[in-house]
Amino acid sequence: MMDIFFDLSARSVRLNFLRSLLASIGIVIGVVAISSMGMLGTNMQLSVSSQLSSGVNTVILTSDVVKLSSTSPNSTANNGIDESTLNEIKSAAGQNQVITIHHTSDQFTVGTTNGRGSIYGLDPNDINKFLNVSEGKNLQGGNDALVGATIASNFNIVPGSSIKIGQNCATIVRPVVRVTGILAARGFTSDNVNTDNAIVVSDDWYTDHFDDKNVYDQVNVILQDINTINQTEAFINAKVNRNSDVVRVSDASSRLTTITSTLGTITTFIMAIGGISLVVAAVSIFNVMMMSVKERVQEIGILLSIGTEKGEVRRMFLYEALILGLIGAGVGGLMSFIIGYTVVNAMIGSTAYFFLPASLIFIPYGMIIGVVVCVGSGMYPAWMASNMDPIDALRSE
Amino acid sequence: MSETPLIRLDDVSKVYHLESGDFTALDHVSLDIMENEFVAIMGPSGSGKSTIMNQLGILDVPTTGKLLIDGRDVARLSSLERTHMRRDIIGYIFQKFYLIPLLTAYENVEYPLILKYKHRDTSGRATAMLEAVGLDKAMSAHRPNQLSGGQQQRVAIARALVNDPKILLCDEPTGNLDSKTGLQIMQILVDLHKKGKTVIIVTHDPRIGEYAHRIIKLADGRVVES
Prior knowledge:
The complex is a heterodimer of chains A (397) and B (226). Chain A is an alpha+beta fold and 397 residues long. Chain A contains 13 helices and 12 strands. In chain A, the strands form 2 sheets. A 6-stranded mixed beta barrel of chain A has the order 3-4-9-6-8-7. Chain A has a two-stranded antiparallel ribbon with strand order 2-10. In chain A, α2 crosses α10. The longest helix of chain A has 44 residues, at 252-295. Chain A is elongated, with a radius of gyration of 32 Å. In chain A, 41% of the residues are buried. In chain B, the strands form 2 sheets. In chain B, strands 6-7-8-3-9-10 form a 6-stranded mixed beta sheet, sandwiched between helices. Chain B has a single domain (35-62, 71-225), classed as P-loop containing nucleotide triphosphate hydrolases (Rossmann fold, 3-Layer(aba) Sandwich). Classes of the chains: A alpha+beta (397), B alpha/beta (226). At the A-B interface, α1, α9 and α13 of A face α2 and α3 of B.
């Protein structure tokens, strides 16, 4: 049978339905904000982790020193991995595949449309070791090129299209590459080769046009066995960085950890911003509870004068806050599911991870926080009600 | 009748500390009320009637002196013990009825039973009390605002009696009723006294005082006649 104090609280909420409803809406908004942001962040983390894990067996090597050009000391800094260092890396890498990568960013023109993107120079024989051509065929050399999925889509590029590389200038004849194939979308990858918004050309073409002969921007070592990652990194460090730091060695898994950790921090931050709405809701609930106490002073006086314990009066008002919290959290939980699904779908483009426990757990989290905030907001009004002087309370009109 | 008084006020004073200065509402009052007495406390406004009722109802404690109710020194009790005494020993009937507006007539009467036994009434005692004060079953489902003044006071009497208290404190019980209904209510109180209850009525109406076997008159916080 229902507790009479809960019954009294429920009747009070029903009696002041509109006021209670408005107070609960604050909790609904707070729960939705926290849950949806939590789910969005988690889905983002899971999605990024999934994308990055495709290249997790890669050790990434970039230059750790800046070399100034010997012919022009005042020219721009030129950093990269030279041939001798590359040979040491190959020696340290053993049977694992070593991919050399040239990389810059430049303007280009497709037809009459100008754009900007990354330019990768790769050995044509290395391309199919870690990239997939989804349409057309791999480049053979010369002025052949592959383009990433995003550029192809944005500029309506198909195999056979021509692209002028470099800044659009009437007085300069720009080099032209001919597209032989479109690369499959890779997303944000952990091997630091992000080709979706890039044009991939042969290393010979690249060095002919960007004057980067025998100096590589990045070297990737693709491991045959991922369990040897620490060992391989140690070999490379011992061989290449034995006297001083020549290359910076990183692996995809540590990058993955860093990225997911950063995303986790961002998620917590966004949830905290969502939590501000719960603070506003808490003030609203506090106000409603104070009004409820003020309106029921004489009733409180009656209760106390006929033998109701202070704890029972306190319980009655906490029940009222609990009811508001449960209504707000219940509706908020349901709306979090719907809004969270919509937001995740809109911002990530996939709901593949939405139904995982790691994602859905934010709904009960948000609901619990909403109820706790509500009951917390009702504590002072409940305490105030229970400590009233029954004589003064009875006299009030 | 027991030799020991049910209520003893021994040199009780109540002083209120106001901004304008101290106000003595009860000034060295001493009196005994025995079990099964029917007492009327009378006096003009400001004589200390309400203050003495608050003391007898254990809603307040004396500033000085000793108040013993059912053999217990009220001032020495904890807040919780005083609450339990109000619940178990005293039945309070107010001029303005003071029913709980959110509860039905039946639930108002059932409420003290829930306070005492911590569960809903399954004994039928609440229904029996309502019938005893002349309210039928149909009325018991009504909220206080759906009842007449006389009906509300009957519900208040049933609520006051449901835990079988030793003392029935009535603060101007007919003050908000027409004379016919007032007589009916007084007849209920007379019957309850005959059944062994100690009835204490505060009133300024001499016609109500005539029902009592003993009249205590107050003036300026002092007992002038007992």
